[in-house]
Design goal:
This protein is α/β, with parallel strands linked by helices. The protein has a single domain (about 1-255), classed as Rossmann fold. The chain is about 40% helix and about 20% strand. It has ten helices and seven strands. It has helices at about 1-10, 10-15, 35-50, 65-70, 90-95, 135-145, 160-165, 180-190, 205-220, 225-245; strands spanning about 60, 80-85, 100-105, 120-125, 145-155, 190-200, 245-255. It has a seven-stranded mixed beta sheet, with helices on both faces. Strand 1, helix 4 (about 65-70) and strand 2 form a beta-alpha-beta unit. Helix 9 runs antiparallel to helix 10. The longest helix is centred in the last third of the chain and has 21 residues, at about 225-245. It is globular.
Length: about 260
């Protein structure tokens, strides 16, 4: 799955759709949002807004190509940002995109940091892939300082199937029935002050609509040839349909580790 994401995220279609921003997420859309890049930036901002304290050190889990870390650098000093990803290819790109931050190849379920290392942990649209999400929750709790915060955007799926497991790379153990169960899993990891908000209406819904019309919009603007636009449009519609079929909720989550 890592190789699949490596190809997708640096492929020409993804680069164009995300305006060469390095993002690869649904984003957070408002009436004023004009592009996928802007929506993706706003998703990071939404999670940062959920941090009670915006100082100190922050761990960017599954940082991808470094776009989220680059956006975090608007709030946190670059030297206070650490990004990890399981892909060396993506980490190499992240280092180029966000100089000054620290990046490492690392599994989110086996964090190679000492206890109480970070003031905040952020994870954008990736925890459902981890084997397992519960292991990540426990590791995030461990590396947070007392009083530190975890913020996540995450996806709940309507049901588990072999298709979701194999194509979506979602472990069966990560299938959570509802928001109440998700909250219980965070509680089991030790977190308190848990706030969960389903924003599928402003994240997945607008993303799907934008994706399905993007290729033909590019064609009409003269940026794609018709043949390429038609082929790309079919792929984009298939991706939008896939997420529409499987996704049940898109959660914006914040939780804290007790202490001062």
């Amino acid at each position: 799955m890592t190789r699949v994401y490596d190809r997708l995220m640096v492929g020409s279609v993804a680069r164009r759709y995300y305006d060469n921003s390095g993002f690869f997420n649904f984003g957070y859309w408002t009436a004023q949002t004009k592009s996928q890049r802007a929506a993706s930036e706003q998703l990071v901002d939404q999670l940062v807004d959920r941090l009670p304290h915006k100082t100190g050190s922050i761990l960017d889990v599954a940082c991808g190509l470094g776009a989220s870390s680059e956006r975090l650098a608007r709030t946190f000093a670059p030297q206070m940002i650490t990004g990890i990803n399981i892909s060396k290819t993506q980490i190499d790109r992240a280092r180029e995109r966000c100089p000054g931050a620290t990046f490492a190849v690392m599994d989110a379920t086996e964090l190679q940091f000492p206890d109480a290392q970070f003031d905040a942990v952020i994870c954008i649209e990736a925890a459902f892939h981890f084997n397992t999400r519960d292991d990540f929750f426990r590791e995030a709790f461990r590396v947070l300082k007392p009083g530190g915060s975890l913020v996540i955007s995450d996806i709940l799926f309507k049901h588990f199937s072999e298709t979701l497991g194999k194509i979506g790379n979602v472990p069966r153990a990560n299938h959570v029935r509802d928001i109440a169960e998700y909250r219980n899993r965070l509680t089991a990891a030790g977190f308190t002050n848990i706030d969960l908000e389903d924003r599928i209406d402003v994240c997945l819904g607008p993303f799907r609509r934008n994706l399905t019309r993007w290729a033909m919009t590019e064609y009409r603007a003269g940026r794609l040839r018709l043949s390429r636009a038609l082929t790309t449009s079919l792929v984009c519609r298939g991706v939008a349909a896939y997420f529409g079929f499987f996704c049940k909720a898109y959660l914006l989550v914040s939780a804290r580790k007790n202490g001062t």
